Amino acid sequence: MVEEMKGKIRVFCRIRPASRTESAQSETVVVEKVDEFSVKVETSRGDREFQFDRVFSSEASQTDLFLDMSRLIQSAIDGYNVCIFAYGQTGSGKTFTMVGDKDQKNPGIMPRTFNAIFDIITENRNKFEYRVSTYMLELYNDRLQDLLVTPTTAAGSSAAESQQFQAAAHRVEIKRNRKGVVFAQGAEKKDVSNARELYALFKQACANRHISATKMNVESSRSHLIVGITVESRNLTNGSVSSGKVSLVDLAGSERAAKTGAKDHQLKEANFINKSLSALGDVISALSAELPHVPYRNSKLTQVMRDSLGGNAKTLMIVNVSPSGCNLDETLTSLCYATRVKNITNIAQRNVESKEIAHLKEV
Ligand code: ADP
Ligand code: MG
Q1: Of 23, 56, 118, 180, which one is least surrounded by beta carbons within 10 A?
Q2: Ligand 1, atom 12, residue with closest C-alpha
Q3: Which CA distances in Å does 20 have to 26, 323, 324?
Q4: Positive or negative, the Cα torsion across 147, 199, 185, 153?
Q5: SS3 (DSSP) at 52
Q6: How far is residue 181's CA from residue 230's CA, in Å, rounded to a whole number?
Q7: Residue-wise DSSP of 205-220
Q8: Tell me: the pLDDT tens digits for 29-51?
C-alpha cells in the first residue's frame, strides 16, 4: 500500500502505551484505535474521530510499523526521494518510533532502514552497482549543526570561542541542485559500505547531538534531527544511473512550550520550534491547496525538507500521540495538524538518467 502512495503524503498515527507513571496515577485513557484507519478521542464535548492511512495501537510493535515501510525503502533505491518523519508533542513516542529505545532492544525506523537498504543492495549486487552516502544534521534554533563533525576544543581558546570557530568552519547551508534535490552544502557527507558502518556513524551523530545539547542545556526534544541517506545505483546491463534519497526526521516536540515560568532561552527555543513547525504546516497547506507559491523559504526546516514535501517525493508522516487525558489538548492539536497534511498530492518521479546522459555529465 505504501509503495502505491506515489504522489501522496501518507499519514500514520501511532498511540503510545500509557507510561508507568500514568498507569500508577490511574490516568484515564482517552485515545483509542477504532480500526486500521480510524482513531477516536474522548473529549468533554463528546467523541471525535480522525481518519488516517493507518492507525497503530499501543500494542503495535516496531516490527509491525516497519512492515509497512520496507517497500518505501525499495522506492528510494529505485530512485525516488523518500521522507519519513515523526511529529508530536514531547513524550509522545517520536524518538522511540524513529530511533528506538535506549538499549536498542526495540530498534526504530532509522536502524531498521539502515539494514533494509543494505539487504536490498546485497540482493541485487549482480545487477546493480551502488554507492551509499549519508549526512546527519541537527537543527537547533535556527542553526544547522553537522553531527558527523565531532566538536573539538582548540588549545588556548575558551570553549565558547572554539565552539564559534567550529560553527563557522562547519557552516551548513541548504542548496538545491538542478533536479531540485536538496543537499546540505558544507555538511560532511560520508560514504558507507554496509549497515554496520552506517549505524556507527549514527551513534557518533547521536553522541555529538548529546554534546551540543548538554552544552546549551537543552534536551534533544528541543531540536530536529535529520538523517539523509543517498543511494546511487548503476544498472550493470544498460548503464542507466539513478539516485534516490531517504530522509529520516525526528522533529522537535510540537507542544506550545512557552508555558508560564519559561526562561529567556526556553522562550527563544520555543519560538524557533513553533516557527519551524508552523512553517512546515504552511508549506503543507500551500501544497494541498495547490497554490502557485509554496513558502519553503520561511524556515530552515522547510528548506531542508523541501525535496521531501511536494514535487518529487514520497512522504510518510507518523503522528505520535499520548493516550492520556492529561495530554488531550496537545493530542487534538497534533491530530488536526496531521489531518491537514493528509490532503497533499505530489507527483513522485524517479531521478533516473540514461547511460548517455550520465556519461556526458561525467565528461
Ligand atoms: P518523544 O521523542 O516524542 O519526546 P519518546 O520517544 O522519548 O518521546 O517517548 C517517551 C517515553 O515513552 C520513552 O521512555 C519511550 O521509551 C516510551 N515509549 C514511547 N512510545 C513507546 C511505545 N510504542 N512502546 C513502548 N514505549 C514507548
Ligand atoms: Mg524525542
Answers
A1: 23
A2: 93
A3: 10, 13, 12
A4: positive
A5: coil
A6: 11
A7: HHHHHHHHHHHTT--G
A8: 999 999 999 999 999 999 999 99
* Contact status, residue 31 vs residue 321, Cβ threshold 8 Å: yes
Contact 95 CB / ligand 1 (< 6 Å): yes
The three grid cell numbers given for residue 127, joined into one nine-digit string: 545487477
Judge if the beta carbon of residue 93 lies within 6 A of ligand 1: yes
For ligand 2, an ion, list residues with CB under 5 A: 94-95, 221
Torsion angle, alpha carbons of 295, 298, 303, 305, to 10: -70
**C-alpha closest to that of 230 among 77, 110, 89:** 77
Beta carbons of 190 and 147 less than 8 angstroms apart: no
What separation in Å is there between the alpha carbon of 316 and the centre of ligand 1?
Answer: 19
Residue in 245, 272, 271 with CA at minimum distance from that of residue 258: 271
Mutate to test the pocket of ligand 1, among 22, 57, 96 (most ligand atoms within 8 A of CB): 96
Share of the chain above pLDDT 70, in %: 82
Provide the grid cell at 325: 487525558
The pLDDT-based confidence of 254 (bands split at 50, 70, 90) is: confident
Beta-bridge partner residues of 352? 242
Segment 205-216, tens digit of pLDDT: 988 887 666 555
DSSP, residue by residue, 130-181 = EEEEEEEEEEETTEEEETTS-----TTS-HHHHHHHHHHHT--EEEE-TT--
Tens digits of per-residue pLDDT, 163-182?
A: 555 555 566 887 777 776 67
Q: Which CATH architecture has domain 2-362?
A: 3-Layer(aba) Sandwich (3.40)
Q: Record the cell numbers describing residue 207, joined without a space.
A: 553522541
- How far is C-alpha 69 from the geometric centre of its chain's CA atoms? 14
- Identify the residue with better confidence: 56 or 354: 56
Q: For residue 175, report the distance from its CA to the centre of ligand 1, in Å.
A: 33
CA distance 162 to 262: 29
Q: Are strands 314-321 and 241-250 parallel, antiparallel or unpaired?
A: unpaired
